[in-house]
Amino acid sequence: MERTFSIIKPDATKRNLTGKVNAMIEGAGLRIVAQRRIQMTEAQAKRFYEVHAERPFYGELVEFMTSAPVVVQVLEADNAVAKYREVMGATNPEEADAGTIRKEVALSIGENSVHGSDSQENAAIEIAQFFSEAEIVG
Ligand code: ATP
Ligand code: MG
């Protein structure tokens, strides 16, 4: 069993779409084994997206991620990382396949409703930023 880290982003929580996104996650066979709704601090958002610090959209991204509550989650399945990337769809919702979360729900490349880890290594790092092992219950 593999784990991945997910965030339901502010554009989705603001529009009351947490349940809809979770239904799509569970419908795809991913199990939500930890979940918490939080207001991300600027420091948390900056640390989380540190890899993008040099990108022109970094400031905008940090501002967006702290603009309203997010839901942080740990998802479990066989091949959870790749499976969730598939369920999310492309970063830009205009390029996302039909039936994916971003195609169905996202507003734009910035306000794209969900985050999912891009590797098992990053999944472990991201999970540890927000959850202790005791909070993850499969
Ligand atoms: P995420 O890491 O959030 O799961 P991703 O892996 O599909 O998304 P990344 O390339 O890691 O995409 O970019 C991280 C986030 O930065 C994107 O989800 C999006 O919110 C934002 N982003 C990426 N490219 C742009 C852009 N050109 N303009 C504005 N925001 C962007
Ligand atoms: Mg990414």
Brief overview, please?
This protein has about 140 residues and is of the alpha+beta class.
Highlighted features:
138 residues, alpha+beta, 40% helix, binds adenosine-5'-triphosphate, 4 strands, globular
Query: What percentage of amino acids are in beta strands?
Result: 15-25%
Neighbour order of strands in the largest sheet: 2-3-1-4
Report how far apart the termini are: 10 Å
- Each distinct ligand: adenosine-5'-triphosphate, magnesium ion
Layout of helices and strands:
Elements: E1 2-8, H1 10-14, H2 18-27, E2 31-38, H3 42-48, H4 58-65, E3 70-77, H5 80-88, H6 101-105, E4 114-116, H7 120-130
Antiparallel strand pairs: 1-3, 1-4, 2-3
Adenosine-5'-triphosphate binds at residues 52, 57, 61, 91, 109-110, 112, 115-116, 118.
Can you walk through the features of this model?
The chain is built from seven helices and four strands; from the N terminus they run E-H-H-E-H-H-E-H-H-E-H. The chain is an alpha+beta fold. A four-stranded antiparallel beta sheet has the order 2-3-1-4. It is 40% helix and 19% strand. It is globular. Bound molecules: adenosine-5'-triphosphate (ATP) and magnesium ion (MG). Adenosine-5'-triphosphate binds next to strand 4.
